[in-house]
Amino acid sequence: MSSDAEETRPDAGSRRLMVLLAMAMFVLVVDTSLMNVSISAVVRDLDTTASGVQSAIALEALVSAAFILINSKVGDLIGRKRAYVLGLSAYAIGALAMTLAQSLTAIVIFWAIVGGLGASLLLPAMQSLIHGNFAGSAQKKAYALVGAAAAIAAAIGPLLGGFVTTYLSWRVGFGLEVVIILVVLSQIHLVRDVAYTGTRKIDAVGAVLSVIGMGGVVLGILVWQEGGAYVRLLMLVGVVALVLLARWLVGRKRAGKLTLLDPDLFRHPNFTAGISGQALQQITLGGAMIALPLFLQMSLEYNALEAGLSLAPLSLTMFAAALVAGKRAGDRRPASIIRAGFLLASIGIAVIVPFVPRVDSGWYLVLPLAVTGCGLGLLVSQLNNYTLAPVEEERVSEAAGVNSAAGSFGLSFGLAMAGGLMLAALSFGFTQMTQNSSVIPAAEQQQIAAALERDAEIMSDTQLAEQITGQPPEVEAEIVAINSDARNRSLQVALLVPLLAALAGLANSFRMLRLPDVKPSSSLEGMDFG
């Protein structure tokens, strides 16, 4: 037994590799937090719009979701180590672009698209490399360290991003990401590649349909919120592609041919219920993480640090609840903990909605944000294991990829849908209140209505006041008042997306309770950090 222990005890090189893998995961998770709390600073420095930045955030999640299944296979074919290097390099390119960007276009191309592709290569490769570079207790320690890095990044990301953005610059934050990635890549010789012995064929049709399906639905929403054309066509193409993908997978499976993913995975009721819960949890998180930062930075006009501090109750309680529930769940059924999670998230967001037009300080949000964070933390602690528990050990890696794709798609959908509804509600509310105003002249009412038809935009009262100088004082005051009311109502509408998703998750949890519990296999260790 002592010899076995010595074989699995990590040496100095292995411990250093664990730390480097954890550093890579930290960057991956903290990246989006930095963007969320920096929205107003990015808008000001690049002279762009909050909805444009929000669209970039949603697009990055969408690209990661749409390509994670096929890029997992690409990593198998080109080598997991090479995929890991390419993924990190793409992420570094995205972060470097944020450091140097002079326009939103650069952010969309390099941070959202190139960085999203990097994430979809990096996550599956990292999982395989940990599995192949460590064994026994060392492997468990590696998974635990990487998972802890992700959890810590999620918890302190808003605070760290807010501090750097306020006292230095948001560009410095992304520059630090580049430095960390370069440090990790400089030690790539420590990574031993993991050979792939499976088939080298690819289900190209299934891969294309999955990308078009997920991409069409979310891109349709993003185009809608930006006032673009062919919205219905894009969403219809996406839905049709997803239906065709399901039929294609089933047909290929019956014919005994290679499929992008095994449709028999969805025969497990626990798996389908878990996948649904995973997507709904991420829609809840995505919708909240668009509406709440915009409320703090546009309505309350907080800087990045103040916004990060205000969001800290959400991120810190999420981290704490996940940690406690993961260690002390005891004999409690996972489904009952999931139900409690969705219930707390629903209550927390439901309390925030009426607060939006009535509070003038983030302090009023501390308790509901803490309740929401506790709920999301409970979900994080249980959903992955619940979803993967019924899957046979040899198919767990494939199932984990589907689980990650569902979560990333849910996140991008929540971001896009909340943003789209927010701008639609803003346009409608501003137009109606302007037309009903007795202070604004009729000619200017028509100009405002025409401008909103072309481009509705969330902005603070200070930003708007700077744009309407030269008007009579009473007209300026009226337009600013209308902007404040319409903006807050639109943010309330946006918060309905995470609220409805949490309620749908709560309903789904009752289905989970009716299903028998399945004990997870030992191979689930570390399957949840991506």
From TrEMBL:
InterPro entries: MFS, MFS_dom, MFS_trans_sf. SUPFAM superfamilies: MFS general substrate transporter (SSF103473). It comes from the Bacteria. It is found in: Cell membrane. The chain crosses the membrane at residues 17-39, 51-71, 83-101, 107-130, 142-164, 170-190, 202-224, 230-250, 271-295, 307-325, 337-356, 402-428, 491-510. It is a multi-pass membrane protein. This is MFS transporter. It comes from Cellulomonas edaphi.
